[in-house]
Amino acid sequence: MNAIAWVIYDAGLKVGFAYAERLAGEAVEMVPDSPHYQHTYATIIAAQGRYKEALTIAPNFLKSAELGEQYPNDLISFFSSVAVAGFAKEGLDILKQSLCAPFVEPLIVALQMVVGEEYNAPQEVVEVAKDVVKEIESQDKKNENTMGKSLSGTNPYVER
């Protein structure tokens, strides 16, 4: 079930996201301790614009270091989308307290940069973090162009 849900999400089949959510939710019910299933479920929920709800699930998939060790790019993708949606600080707070933190240090530094928080990291981590920030900004620019929304929370189509 989880694999099918991920394929639907990964293919970008938005019309199938509700079905994918149901499949991922059933997988979580069957194996609630699976960080992979929890991550899939949260990712699909976030992809539907329900970022606050997805963030409530995030601690479940960050309880072990497994995802951070094996799939750091999936965590970068999830938390980048959360940041673009305006929840960078909330995502950062969750990540900093997780067992995955040592494996996604560039992501943590990138989110610290986005929210304007001080950071102290080796130069190579900072360089990777800058690339993550560029990816976040690129996603934000896409959202601004397609939906009129940006990371700053402003809407270019609304008079101020």
The gist of it:
This protein is an all-alpha fold and 160 residues long. It has helices at 2-10, 17-30, 35-47, 51-61, 66-70, 72-96, 105-115, 123-147.
SS strand fraction? under 5%
What general form does the structure show? globular
Helix content: over 70%
Rg result: 16 Å
Structural class: mainly alpha
Order of helices and strands: HHHHHHHH
Set down the secondary structure blueprint.
Elements: H1 2-10, H2 17-30, H3 35-47, H4 51-61, H5 66-70, H6 72-96, H7 105-115, H8 123-147
Helix pairs in contact: 1-2, 1-3, 2-3, 3-4, 4-6, 6-7, 6-8, 7-8
Description of the structure:
By secondary structure, the protein is mostly helical. The protein folds into two domains: 1-61, Serine Threonine Protein Phosphatase 5, Tetratricopeptide repeat, CATH 1.25.40.10; 68-143, no CATH class. Helix content is 71%, strand content 0%. The chain is built from eight helices and no strands. The chain has helices spanning 2-10, 17-30, 35-47, 51-61, 66-70, 72-96, 105-115, 123-147. α3 runs antiparallel to α4 (51-61), α4 (51-61) packs across α6 (72-96) and α6 (72-96) crosses α8. The relative contact order is 0.09.
List the keywords.
160 residues; mainly alpha; Serine Threonine Protein Phosphatase 5, Tetratricopeptide repeat; 8 helices
